[in-house]
Design goal:
CATH architecture of one domain in chain B: Alpha-Beta Complex
Oligomer: heterodimer
Shape of chain B: globular
Strand order of the largest sheet of chain A: 2-6-7-10-1-11-12-13-14
Strand order of the largest sheet of chain B: 1-3-2-4-6-5-10-11-9-7-8
Strand content of chain B: 5-15%
Number of strands of chain A: 16
Bound molecules: zinc ion
Shape of chain A: elongated
Radius of gyration of chain A: 29 Å
Largest interface: A-B, 32 and 46 residues
Structural class of chain B: alpha/beta
Chain lengths: 479, 478
C-alpha cells in the first residue's frame, strides 16, 4: 500500500543566557566537571529557584519570531521522574500555560512553500550529564554525575504533525535553527547538543485523514540523523503494516552507526510525570508593553530578509534563500556588498568558492579564513580589470592559505592581467603559426574556431591575458 | 527566677548592665540541658563549642563598650529543618542523618548579624510531618510540663527547649500549625507570620506553599524582636513578600480599645476539650473587659480544611522529597543498580509518616486523579481564603483555640493518623489562606497543662496581632 508519513518535531534549544535559568551559575560549555554549580542547581535541601528574566525574554522572542501568541500569564510546573542526572528528580518545565502557543513558520521544499504550525514553546531546565565507567548506565560499574549543565535554560518548540517527509522535517528544523540564530537567543551548535529534536513519526494510507500509531525517537542532534532516522522509520513502519502487523506506540532510539532505530520503551513503561504547578515560583506575568518592546527589538527575520534581497538586489528566490538561511551568511553578504561589490557577483562567490571551501574544511562562515572585506577587495580587482575571473579563483585559493591582501597576492605571484597588446603580440603570433588548422577553419567561416586559439593564448600566458583583448587581437590579425 | 527562665529582652537588659555575661548565661542554659535533656530530648544536635564562642564575641563587644543588638548573646534553638552552614541539618530524618549544608538559610544569615548563640538544632517530626514530635527519626521529645506527654509538633523540640529553659528563644516552622500548636502545648508564645513575610530560602521544604518560619518565645515582646530580625523580602525566595516590614516592637502597646474580635463558631468544635474552650472563652472576656468588641463569625469551609490540607501538603511534599535518592548527598543504601539503590534508600531511611504522605501526595497527583483530588483541593483552598476575606470585612482579628485539646499522652494518637490529623483543625486554615497567627498562653488545665489561644490576623498585619497579644499577656500576667 502507499502510505503518507505524518511527522511532528519537538525541538529542544539551549538558550545562550550567561547564567542558568534558576540560579547565578555560568552556562559556559566545556568547563571542568561540577565547577558551575551551587546549592540551587544541585537541588540541595532548602534551596529555592528564582527565574532568570533573560530566559523569559529569549523565550518570548522565540515565540514572536515564530508567529506565536504570547501568554501574558504563564507558569512553571514540576515534571516528576527519577533519574540520577536530575538532582531534584523533577524537571522544572511548563505544562498547561506555556509562554507561547499557536505559531507557524514557512518552509520551502522542492520549490514548494508550506506552512508548519507550532503547537507551543515552553521553557525548562536541562539535566546534568552522566559519566559512565562503561558505555551505558546498565553496563557500568560506576557512574558519576556532572551537574554543570543542570539548570541550563532550554526552550522546547513543539510542532503540529504537519510534515510529510524527512526533507520537510529537515527544512523545518533548519528554519527553526535559522530563526533562533537570527534573534540571537541560541548558539544552535548541534554538536554541543544546543539543538536537538525528538521526532514523532506515523504512517497512514494515502488519502486517509486518520492518524496512525506513532513512534518517538529522542535526542536527534544532526540534520543527517534526522533525515536518516525518519526515512528508516517510514520504511520500517511500512514493512510492518504491509505484513499485516501493528505499529506499537513506543520510544525508539536512533543508532547512527547501524543506521537503524531500536525499541527503547513502550507506552506501558511511559512515565506518569505527575505534573504539579511549581509552588516555589510565582506565575510569570508579562505586560503587553514588554511584549511590544521585545517585538520591536527583533531583527529582520530570514523570510523578510530573503524577500528584501530579491527585491533590492534582484537575486533569485533560491539564491536569496541560501544567502539568508543563516544570519552569519546574510551578514557576510551585506559586508561584501557594502564595499561596493555587485550583489549577484557577491552571491555567486559566497555560494560558490567560499561555501565549497568552508564545507570541505567543515568550517562555519564566522570562522572563514577569507573574511568579507578581503573577498570584496578581490572581486573589485576583477571589476577593475586587474585580474580575470579565472585568475580570481587562483587568488581566492591563495587568500584561503594566507592573510595577505588580494592586491599583495596578485603582485607577489605576478597574477596581474596583461592589458598591454605589445606584451603578448609574440605569443599571439606564435599560437597563430602553430595552429594553422584552426586558423583555416576560422577563415572558412567557422567563427567558433577562434575559441581554441584564445584558449591556447590564455594557457601560454598562464591566464593572465585579458581574454577580451586577446579576442580583439586575433580578429584583427586573422581578418 | 533562674536566668534561663527569663525572657530575651530581660536578659538583654542584664547583659548591657553587665549584671551577667553571655558566657555565664550560655553555661547556665547548658547546665539545664545537662540536667534534663536526657528526659526531654529537645535537640538533635548540640553545638556548645560554637555557642560559647559566639557568647565570648558578644561579651567582648560589651566590654569594649560597643552597642549590642537585643538578641545578641542570647541562647537560641534552631529547628533542624533550617539549614545551618557547617552544622548538621537532619530534618530529624535518617535520610539526612549526616547532611551538613554548605550554606546558611536566609534567616540564619539575618540572625548572624546579631551574633546569636545557637545552642543546637532542635528535634521535630521528620520533615515537619506530624503534630507531636513522636515522628522524629531519632527520638521522641517530651513535654517539659509533663514528661509523659507530647510537646506538640512538628516544632516540638523548639517549643520544649524554650519552655524548659534549654533555650531562651527558638525558630520553628509552621506548615499546618507546627509552631502554634507546640507553643500552645508547651505554654510559650509562637507565631506563624504571613506567608511570604519570612524567607523560606534554606528551610527544607515540606509543603512549599504552606511552610513559614517563625519565632517561638517566652513572651510577646521577644516574639516581636525575633520577627523584626527574620522578616523581609529575599531575592532568593521568589514567594517572599516585597512589602515593607514595620518595626514590630512599635506594636508592643497595651491597648485593644475598639479592636473588633471575631469568634468563629466552627473553631469551637465538637469533641473539643471543655477546659480548653473555657480558657479561650475567658480570654475573649478579658479582651472585652479591656475595651475590645466581640462578634461571633462564621468561616463556613473550616470543616473541609483538613481534607484540603491533607491533599495539598502531601502533594507538594511528594515532589519536594523526591530529591532524597541517595545519589549525591544524604544516606545511601546500596542496591543492584541505581533504581534499586534509590528504592532501598528511600524505603529504609524515610519514616512511616513520611512514606504515608508521599504516597497520598503521589496518588493525588497521578494521571486520572489529579482533577478529582489535587485540583479540587486547590479550588477549595480559594474558598477557605474567601471565608477569611469575608470575615475580615467585619473584624480586625479572629480569636480561636490553637488546638482542641491540651498536650496528650505520648503514644495516645500515634496509631491513629486520622484522629491526629483532626487535631490540626484550628491551625491549618491559616496556612491554606497564608494568614498570620499567634498562639498565646491563656491558662492551664486542672492537670497543670498549658492552654493557648490563637489570634488570626489579616495578611501582613502581624502588628495588630502583636498589639492584641501583648495587651492580653500584660493583663493575664497581673
Ligand atoms: Zn547554580
Amino acid at each position: 500500500m502507499e502510505y503518507e508519513a505524518v511527522i511532528g518535531l519537538e525541538i529542544h534549544s539551549e538558550l545562550k543566557t550567561a547564567t542558568k535559568i534558576f540560579c547565578g551559575c555560568a552556562t559556559t560549555f566545556g568547563a571542568e566537571q561540577n565547577t558551575h554549580t551551587c546549592p540551587v542547581c544541585l537541588g540541595l535541601p532548602g534551596v529555592l529557584p528564582s527565574v532568570n528574566r533573560k530566559v523569559v525574554e529569549f523565550a518570548i522572542k522565540a515565540g514572536l519570531a515564530t508567529n506565536c501568541k504570547i501568554n501574558q500569564y504563564s507558569k512553571f510546573d514540576r515534571k516528576n521522574y527519577y533519574y540520577p542526572d536530575l538532582p531534584k528528580n523533577w524537571q522544572t518545565s511548563q505544562y498547561d500555560l506555556p509562554i507561547a502557543e499557536h505559531g507557524w513558520v514557512e518552509i520551502d521544499v522542492e520549490g514548494k512553500r508550506k506552512k508548519i504550525r507550532l503547537t507551543r514553546i515552553h521553557m525548562e531546565e536541562d539535566a546534568g550529564k552522566l559519566v559512565h565507567s562503561g558505555t551505558t548506565i546498565k553496563d557500568s560499574a560506576t557512574s558519576n554525575v556532572d551537574y554543570n549543565r543542570t539548570g541550563v535554560p532550554l526552550i522546547e518548540i513543539v510542532s503540529e504533525p504537519d510534515m510529510r517527509s524527512a526533507a520537510e522535517a529537515r527544512a523545518y528544523m533548519e528554519k527553526i535553527k535559522s530563526i533562533l540564530e537570527y534573534i540571537d537567543v541560541s548558539n544552535c551548535r548541534m554538536e554541543e547538543g544546543n539543538l536537538r529534536a525528538d521526532i514523532n513519526v506515523s504512517l497512514r494510507p494515502i488519502g486517509s485523514d486518520k492518524l496512525g500509531t506513532r513512534t518517538e525517537m529522542k535526542n536527534i542532534n544532526s540534520f543527517k540523523s534526522l533525515e536518516d532516522a525518519i526515512n528508516y522509520e517510514i520504511e520500517r513502519q511500512a514493512d510492518v503494516l504491509d505484513d499485516g502487523g501493528k505499529i506499537i506506540q513506543e520510544t525508539r532510539t536512533w543508532n547512527p552507526e547501524k543506521g537503524i532505530t531500536q525499541s527503547m520503551r513502550s507506552k506501558e513503561d511511559a512515565h506518569d510525570y505527575r505534573y504539579m504547578p511549581e509552588p516555589d515560583l510565582p506565575p510569570i506575568v508579562t505586560s503587553a508593553e514588554e511584549i511590544e518592546s521585545f517585538k520591536k527589538s527583533l531583527p529582520e527575520l530570514p523570510d523578510a530578509r530573503r524577500e528584501r534581497l530579491t527585491k533590492e538586489y534582484g537575486l533569485s528566490d533560491y539564491d536569496a534563500g541560501i544567502i539568508t538561511s543563516s544570519r552569519a551568511m546574510a551578514e557576510y553578504f551585506d559586508s561584501v556588498i557594502a564595499e561596493g561589490v555587485d550583489a549577484k557577483i557577491a552571491a555567486n562567490w559566497i555560494m560558490g568558492d567560499l561555501s565549497k571551501n568552508l564545507n570541505a574544511e567543515n568550517l562555519t562562515i564566522e570562522n572563514s579564513p577569507v573574511d568579507a572585506k578581503r573577498l570584496a577587495q578581490m572581486i573589485l580587482l576583477i571589476d577593475k580589470g586587474t585580474i580575470s575571473g579565472k585568475i580570481a579563483k587562483t587568488v581566492f585559493v591563495e587568500m584561503w592559505k594566507s592573510q595577505d591582501s588580494p592586491e599583495k597576492i596578485v603582485k607577489d605571484k605576478g597574477l596581474v592581467q596583461i592589458t598591454d597588446t605589445s606584451a603578448i603580440e609574440g605569443i599571439v603570433d606564435e599560437v597563430i603559426a602553430k595552429n594553422q588548422k584552426a586558423v583555416e577553419e576560422y577563415k572558412a567561416g567557422k567563427k567558433k574556431a577562434i575559441g581554441a586559439l584564445v584558449g591556447q593564448i590564455m594557457k601560454a600566458t598562464k591566464g593572465k591575458a585579458n581574454p577580451q583583448m586577446v579576442n580583439e587581437m586575433l580578429s584583427k590579425k586573422l581578418n | 527566677m533562674k536566668l534561663n527562665e527569663k525572657s530575651a529582652h530581660e536578659l538583654h537588659e542584664m547583659l548591657i548592665a553587665k549584671k551577667i555575661s553571655s558566657v555565664e548565661l550560655t553555661e547556665e542554659v547548658f547546665k539545664e540541658i545537662d540536667e534534663k535533656e536526657n528526659k526531654v530530648g529537645a535537640y538533635v544536635t548540640l553545638t556548645k563549642e560554637e555557642a560559647l564562642k559566639s557568647a565570648k564575641i558578644v561579651d567582648e563587644k560589651i566590654s569594649r563598650g560597643e552597642e549590642i543588638k537585643i538578641l545578641s548573646g542570647i541562647p537560641c534553638a534552631i529547628k533542624d529543618n533550617i539549614c545551618t552552614k557547617g552544622i548538621k541539618t537532619t530534618c530529624a530524618s535518617k535520610i539526612l542523618e549526616n547532611f551538613i549544608p554548605p550554606y546558611d538559610a536566609t534567616v540564619m544569615t539575618k540572625l548572624s548579624a546579631i551574633n546569636p548563640v545557637v545552642v543546637g538544632k532542635s528535634n521535630m517530626d521528620e520533615f515537619a510531618m506530624g503534630g507531636s514530635t513522636e515522628n522524629s527519626g531519632f527520638h521522641v521529645t517530651h513535654n517539659p510540663h509533663d514528661l509523659e506527654r507530647v510537646p506538640g509538633g512538628s516544632s516540638g523540640g523548639s517549643a520544649a527547649a524554650v519552655a524548659g529553659g534549654e533555650a531562651i528563644f527558638a525558630l520553628g516552622s509552621d506548615t499546618g500549625g507546627s509552631i502554634r500548636q507546640p507553643a500552645s502545648f508547651c505554654g510559650v508564645v509562637g507565631m506563624k507570620p504571613t506567608y511570604g513575610r519570612v524567607s523560606r530560602y534554606g528551610l527544607v521544604a515540606y509543603a512549599s506553599s504552606l511552610d513559614q518560619i517563625g519565632p517561638i518565645t517566652k513572651d510577646v515582646t521577644d516574639c516581636a524582636h525575633v520577627l523584626n530580625i527574620i522578616s523581609g523580602h529575599d531575592e532568593m525566595d521568589s514567594t517572599s513578600s516585597p512589602a515593607e516590614v514595620p518595626d514590630f516592637t512599635k506594636s508592643l502597646i497595651a491597648d485593644v480599645k475598639n479592636l473588633k474580635i471575631g469568634l468563629p463558631k466552627e473553631y469551637f468544635v465538637e469533641g473539643m476539650d471543655s477546659e480548653v474552650e473555657t480558657a479561650v472563652r475567658n480570654a475573649a472576656k478579658i479582651f472585652e473587659k479591656l475595651g475590645a468588641t466581640l462578634k461571633e463569625i462564621s468561616l463556613p469551609h473550616t470543616d473541609v480544611s483538613i481534607s484540603t490540607y491533607y491533599l495539598i501538603a502531601p502533594a507538594e511534599a511528594a515532589t519536594n522529597l523526591e530529591r532524597y535518592d541517595g545519589v549525591s548527598y544524604g544516606a545511601r543504601v546500596d542496591g543492584i543498580d541505581v533504581v534499586d539503590m534509590m528504592k532501598n534508600t528511600r524505603s529504609e531511611k524515610f519514616g512511616e509518616e513520611v512514606k504515608r504522605r508521599i504516597m497520598i501526595g503521589n496518588y493525588a497527583l497521578s494521571a486520572g486523579y489529579y482533577d478529582a483530588y489535587y485540583l479540587k483541593a486547590l479550588k477549595v483552598r480559594t474558598l477557605i481564603q474567601k471565608d477569611f476575606t469575608d470575615a475580615f470585612k467585619d473584624v480586625d482579628v479572629i480569636l480561636a483555640p490553637t488546638a482542641p485539646t491540651a498536650a496528650y499522652k505520648i503514644g495516645e494518637m500515634i496509631s491513629d493518623p486520622l484522629k491526629m490529623y483532626l487535631q490540626d483543625i484550628c491551625t491549618v486554615p491559616l496556612n491554606l489562606a497564608g494568614l498570620p497567627g499567634i498562639s498565646v498562653p491563656c491558662g492551664k488545665t486542672k492537670n497543670n497543662l498549658p492552654i493557648g489561644f490563637q489570634l488570626i490576623g489579616k495578611a501582613l498585619d502581624e502588628s495588630t496581632l502583636i498589639q492584641a497579644a501583648f495587651t492580653y499577656e500584660k493583663e493575664f500576667l497581673k
